[in-house]
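Troubleshooting log. The previous structure file for this entry was overwritten by mistake, so regenerating from the original sequence record. Sequence copied from the archived sheet and checked twice against the printout by T.R.
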Amino acid sequence: MTDPLELPAGEYDLALFPADAADASGEPLLSAMDVAVPAGANATVVAHLKEDGSPTLTPFVNDTSAVPAGEGRVTVRHVAAAPAVDVRAGGEVIIDGLTNPNEESLTVPAGTVSADVVLAGTDTVAIGPADLSVAEGAHTIVYAWDSGAAGYDLAVQTVSGTHSAPSGVPGGSAGLADEGSSLPMVAALPVVGLAVAGAGAVRLARTRG
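Regenerated output below.
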């Protein structure tokens, strides 16, 4: 994951290239046209695999609304080439039947949570267990990503400042049309505008008109 990029509100054409593309030119791995960046939004665009293993780009709007004192917000996003999963904390299911490319959020006491991801309705562990640090007043976003062939993994993004007044638009997700070849990785674009992962180079072009 990379640092956020602040952008003027508007629509952008987004293209993802291999990291060794000298000037972010040539045929992109993935692209999405007319991606809307609303004024004041805080969002993440993720390059990932669909459940069937094909690559895609999915935008998520990060919830920056306030949480109570002593608590933090945790969001789990399913962006792995995998069927529905359950998320457990301390052995108890806290999110059930989460499918790619959807998300669910919880507000929990700040501290360390031991969690794992299992195939929905089973005890078959796909990821974890792993200790997740939840900071007070922060939004901790966990991505379940990659594939069974490559090995499932977790990526964590933190959006701070949710103890204060909202500075973005509460979330949700939507798919975007994709182009290009296999992409067994995650590229996250945390957007106070947009940003991208070190696995690739991103080109942004402002849509005119």
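The domain at 66-164 is CATH 2.60.40 (Immunoglobulin-like). Archived copy saved in two places this time.
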